[in-house]
Amino acid sequence: MSTPFYVSPQQAMADRAEYARKGIARGRSLVVLQYADGIVFVGENPSRALHKFSEIYDRIGFAAAGKYNEYENLRIGGVRYADLRGYTYDRGDVTARGLANVYAQTLGTIFSSVGEKPYEVELVVAEVGETPEQDQIYRLPHDGSIVDEHGSVAVGGNAEQISGYLDQRHRDGMTLAEALKLAVQALSRDTNGSEREIPAERLEVAVLDRTRPQKRKFKRIEGRQLVRLLEAAGGSGGSGGSDGPDSSDGPDGPDKTRSGGDVE
User: Fold this and answer.
1) For the whole model, what pTM was predicted?
2) Where are the residues of the annotated region Disordered (predicted)?
3) Helix 159-169 vs helix 176-187: angle between axes, to the nearest 10 degrees?
4) What is the three-class DSSP state of 133?
5) CA–CA separation, 150 vs 206, rounded Å?
6) Distance separating alpha carbons of residues 28 and 261, to the nearest angstrom
7) Given 3-state DSSP classes, what are the helix, strand and coil percentages for the chain, each rounded to the nearest 5?
8) Residue 27 confidence (pLDDT)
9) What is the distance between the alpha carbons of residues 162 and 25, in angstroms, rounded to a whole number?
């Protein structure tokens, strides 16, 4: 009988982490920024069907980079968790911190499991508060750890370079147009330092807007409204997309069942 090949636990975990990081890096980057009236999600996404960003609950948004089928399962699980907790207890008991803990347990269990490969995903869970000081942004890497972020965060692709760019230029109290312009500038920078133009029709943008009168604060920004914001900020967003100044799906915002995904 042959002797089984031995791999130290440290090496096995390092190999799993490297595998997951490479999968995440193949996805397009996205950024999440705080601005004066809430939190904005911006990413390059040529697909109109597969979304990077989604609503989880009243004041909570979800963003993900990596493999679409894997984080779509996580998104659906998060919606179910939030709906069940809000129905069983109170809507105020559904928080980004609680949701981040649930995702961390799931990702950590999968990452440490020998029987299945680690998820090639990196998540951002954000909650808009009554004031900017109460906003919460959590980044969850593939291994299930939780990173409490402030101001700005980038995941996927060349996230490290984008994060450095944002850290130097992001400031508190930015308008939505200013935050959108900064996000597009950060996403436009290639790994070699050159810049490229990202037209409006290739951008996916959503916000958690604390000033909305509805309980549900999530809203997608697209079409003419997105072009106007890019022009107001001096961006070169181009034209295209759907008509209409507001992309909400009805008076209470978008449908929760819309997928929040990344396109590799």
Assistant:
1) 0.84
2) 229-264
3) 140
4) helix
5) 18
6) 11
7) 35, 20, 40
8) 83
9) 13
